[in-house]
């Protein structure tokens, strides 16, 4: 089968012919429906080397940590899964037995230093291939919802969902406001999650007019950049400030904007990994305003997000690429020429949702 492989540090990935894997006990073989291309893949193959990251990310492996697909085969001991059904893949894979993993938060595995990889597509073979193996525990049911558009939910959806869940106590009740800075793939999903899970007024800002228009159609009040940006946002809160700010960029000016508009006892979550430094001292932020970062999310949260998607609350903007054109997806991503997420589709002719014709009971637990 074909797979997009990361083979050496500071080297672009390449399409290679590899053996189709077999599921180990406790795993399933997934026929990949869609695999999202993510900016952190670019960091992996362009920026990192053994001096900057741990051995878990060392090449070689197949990229793709935002994947959805159909069950093709089940490994020994796997119960209750049916061939042809569509699932989303929770990427992180921790030790499975520490306190963090036991609550489905493999991202913060206490034994991460000893694990052989971080996630499917980050150290372990991921979804930029015709097939991949996945621990059955990491599968999230998609029902009849389209698995191709669902793929980015595994990271571009779960990351904002987790950040919003952690800020929900700031947004409960009437008269609250949230601000989304940066309306790429993650920011567009954040607007929709905020609309679906809170009664807050959602304010959104971005440099691209078409991204602002899309967020406006999804119920956000949009504010453009420029000198009066912070004042305009404060006005929209009645002068109180924003209860929860989500910065999907993470540059110095965007974090400074967040500091200017956050309310007393509000919360700023920096989600974007641009790494901009900012000054913090006792007087720089309003009283008791929190400033924090965040990383990916939990298995349980991905179940919740997938339910919102199945129920029609979340649309994911995707541009499809064949596996043969997967490198072009990354070129567009690097140039920033896509609105939404690039998704590689290895089986373009497969029916999107599971139907009775493709459902086929397979021997379970053997
Ligand atoms: Zn990612
Ligand atoms: Zn663990």
**Mind summarizing the main beta sheet?**
7 strands, mixed
CATH topology of the largest domain: Quinone Oxidoreductase, Chain A, domain 1
| Distance between the first and last residues' Cα | 26 Å
Mean pLDDT: 94
For the record, the count of structural domains works out to 2
CATH superfamily of the largest domain: Medium-chain alcohol dehydrogenases, catalytic domain
Q: Which structural class best describes the helix and strand composition?
A: alpha/beta
Keywords: Metal-binding, Oxidoreductase, Zinc
Family: Belongs to the zinc-containing alcohol dehydrogenase family.
Protein name: NAD(P)-dependent alcohol dehydrogenase
Pfam families: ADH_N, ADH_zinc_N
Describe how the helices and strands are arranged:
Elements: E1 2-6, E2 14-17, E3 27-36, H1 39-47, E4 61-62, E5 67-74, E6 86-89, H2 99-102, E7 119-120, E8 123-124, E9 131-135, E10 139-141, H3 147-150, H4 158-171, E11 177-181, H5 185-197, E12 201-205, H6 209-217, E13 221-222, H7 229-236, E14 242-247, H8 252-261, E15 262-270, E16 290-293, H9 299-310, E17 318-322, H10 326-335, E18 341-345
Parallel strand pairs: 7-8, 11-12, 11-14, 12-13, 14-15, 15-16, 17-18
Antiparallel strand pairs: 1-2, 1-4, 3-5, 3-9, 3-18, 5-6, 6-10
Helix pairs in contact: 4-5
The protein binds zinc ion (2 copies).
One zinc ion (ZN) binds next to loops.
Summary, kept brief:
Helix content is 25%, strand content 23%.
Give an overview in words.
Its cofactor is Zn(2+). It holds the Pfam family ADH_N. This is NAD(P)-dependent alcohol dehydrogenase. Belongs to the zinc-containing alcohol dehydrogenase family. One of its GO terms (molecular function) is oxidoreductase activity. Helix 4 runs parallel beside helix 5. The protein is of the alpha/beta class. It starts with a strand and ends in a 21-residue tail after the last strand. The C terminus is likely disordered. The strands form 4 sheets. Strands 3, 5, 6, 9, 10, 17 and 18 form a 7-stranded mixed β-sheet that branches. Strands 13-12-11-14-15-16 form a 6-stranded parallel β-sheet, sandwiched between helices. The protein has a 3-stranded antiparallel β-sheet with strand order 2-1-4, with no helix packed on it. The chain is built from 10 helices and 18 strands. It folds into 2 domains: 203 residues, Medium-chain alcohol dehydrogenases, catalytic domain (Quinone Oxidoreductase, Chain A, domain 1, Alpha-Beta Complex); 135 residues, Rossmann fold. The radius of gyration is 21 Å and the shape is globular. The chain binds zinc ion (ZN) (2 copies).
